[in-house]
Each structure stands twice: as C-alpha cells, then as structure tokens.
Specification:
Helices cover 27% and strands 36% of the residues. It has 109 residues and is of the alpha+beta class. It has a 4-stranded antiparallel β-sheet, with helices on one face. A hairpin with a 5-residue loop joins strand 2 (44-47) and strand 3. The longest helix has 20 residues, at 68-87.
Length: 109
C-alpha cells in the first residue's frame, strides 16, 4: 500500500498552568517562537508570551485509502498531546487541520 504525506497543524488553549509551568514556558519561549517553527516529523510547537494558545506543526505519513485525512489529524493531535504531556501542560479546545502535500500543485512561472 502506498504512503501519503500530510502536514498537520494542531491548535489549542493552554490550560492548568501553575506559576512554575508559566515560568518554565516563558524561559523557553524563544525556542518556541513562530519564526522558529517548521513542519518536522518530530513536531514543532509554538506559543507566545501570553501563554494563552499554542500551535503544533508536524509531518505525518499515513497509508493511502479511505479515512487517511482523519488518520493524519489523529496522528498530529497525538504528537501535540505528547509534547504537552512532556512539558507538563494541560490543553483544551484542541482542533486540527491536515493538508496532503502529495496533492499540492506548484505552478511554475
């Protein structure tokens, strides 16, 4: 079966932050700036100094077939949840979008 590549963006609201977690996130904010983000297989998480919301960008590979976009979104959400768990951060209002890079057409000028 063939594999398809998706870029998944997961967004949500940071939740349950105590003072120690807020301090840790602020200390690492430069590493998680939007301009430092990219789509990688490990995932790239961004947030700003207000610590209100986050964005997680990840590349996932799924088997082609029915439901592949849902599978890609689920894999992206699991990647984001893993990062959040490792950082000791809660989340609410999780949502995601997925774009298949195999379907993107580049128009040359």
């Amino acid at each position: 079966m063939s594999s398809r590549t998706y870029r998944v963006i997961v967004r949500g609201v940071l939740d349950g932050l105590d003072d120690d977690r807020r301090a840790w996130l602020r200390a690492h904010a430069a590493e998680h700036d939007l301009f430092a983000s990219s789509f990688t297989e490990q995932g790239s998480t961004t947030y700003d100094g207000s610590l209100a919301a986050f964005s997680h960008r990840v590349v996932v590979h799924v088997d082609a077939g029915p439901g592949e976009e849902d599978e890609a979104r689920t894999a992206g959400e699991l990647s984001a949840l893993q990062w959040l768990e490792d950082a000791g951060v809660g989340v609410r209002r999780l949502r995601s979008t997925a774009t298949c890079t195999d379907d993107v057409r580049v128009r040359r000028r």
